[in-house]
Prior knowledge:
Blueprint: E1 4-10, H1 15-28, E2 35-39, E3 42-49, E4 52-59, E5 64-69, H2 73-80, E6 85-88, H3 103-112, H4 120-123, E7 129-132, E8 143-150, E9 159-166, E10 169-176, E11 180-182
Antiparallel strand pairs: 1-5, 1-6, 2-5, 3-4, 7-8, 7-11, 8-9, 9-10
Amino acid sequence: MDKQWYVVNTYSGHENKVKEKLEMRAESMDMKDYIFRVIVPEHKEVEESEGVKTEKVRKTFPGYILVEMVMSDEAWYVVRNTPGVTGFIGSSGKGAKPTPLQPYEIDKILNNMGMSRIDVDKELAKGQRVRIVSGPFADMNMVGVIDEVIDGDESGSKKVVLLVDLFGQETSVEVEISDIEPTN
């Protein structure tokens, strides 16, 4: 099964505590192969008061956290029963498992935070094969080999240089990390 992103409802104001508790539970219950990343969506705002500018970090979705996980019965149980969690978004209840976020939905949220759906440090390496799934080359069903991972620009988005077969020749193309997915 693939790991996907899910929205988890928490008590408002307890998002960071729930994140910590869930990460500790994933570690102590040996669920690190099922529960990967837990994120509290935040953004920075600049406020001006009496001529003094201050930067504040605000929750993008108060009362919600994002969890990257493989939806197994055990992982579902661990997340649901973490103190402060009130449920999953996209579940009809009655024991029904929730619907994951679509890639374009999670990409938009993570990109606003300067992050990527792909954990660059753990999932991408030079020489790895990836498929281009969106962007200008998406319709060509291209698979390429990573030649280089480029750190984020001023917007924080990371890119990769791929070697692809374009019209019978190996060609370097630069694509956003959000436009690729690792192949099996």
